[in-house]
Amino acid sequence: MNDTTHNPFQFDPHLVQAIAADAAEILDSFREVEEIVGDVHQTYYEPAYEIPRIEKIARDGGSLIDLFRAELLRFHLLQGRRIAEHLADFVCEFNRRRLLACTLALRAVLEVSAALGYYVAKFEAMLPDGEWSDEVCDEFVKLLDKAVRGSRFDWGRWASDGSDRQNLRDAYDAWRQIKDGKKKREAEPTPELTQVNVQTMVEHLANEMGSHPRCGKGYVETTYCLLSDMCHPSVGATLVALLNEPADDHDIIGPGVSDSLMAWYWVEVVSPLVKPITAFAQERLDKIIEIGGKFSVSPDEQ
After folding, report:
1. Of the spans 78-92, 181-195, 205-219, 253-267, which averages the highest pLDDT?
2. How far apart are CA 242 and CA 239, in angstroms?
3. Could you tell me if 34 and 116 are in contact, meaning their C-beta atoms sit under 8 angstroms apart?
């Protein structure tokens, strides 16, 4: 049984020793990941932050710029909190040797980081060099709204009683039966405020991280596909089970995960991913605060 008395963001020392032995580089990588997880959790998950809603901003005589800053902060904190929770889950599940759960958490970290990269680039591209026109203000409001509230699922219809929820089910049933790929994409029963497809965000992340010294071209796509294959009912998930402790003429599935498989997972999957992807995410989180500080002239005051 794992020791549960240690810090929840520390890896089980017995497991670390079994994986790293006397390899200083591997030991260092465990300490680095622990520090990352602890820092992110302390910053984004443990504190409570208050963000004013539009009604309060209006009641207090605030400007449209105040609304922009509030929405940017909301997006900033939500993404940081998601990464913090996923990383904490990863540490807990790694200590339990649950590699499928670990993989789900790591893929989620990559996806949230991709969303950060995608929207920060959009925010920066939309910032005007001079005064804010009404058109730019409207577009910025729409972009912020999509970043914070966009979805691929129609929560409005689902949360309603009676006919609206049934209409959503009927729409999904009709969508399932469409055979033509283009028509199927166009007919997807998404809400009015549709979120960007996560694959589009991941592709954007791949372009941004292609020059990273610890990544290189193709790294993001390869890693995302690897993690996805291990999450899905596919050969990736099968290998995690079958490569446990193979015997000469048969496979052994369960009851646990061997030290050798845990070592492979850490060295090949975890260690190359966590530090560069969290560094990228933190850079983009910091950039959001920087963007908020660039608002100097309120459109209301033009």
Report:
1. 78-92
2. 5
3. no
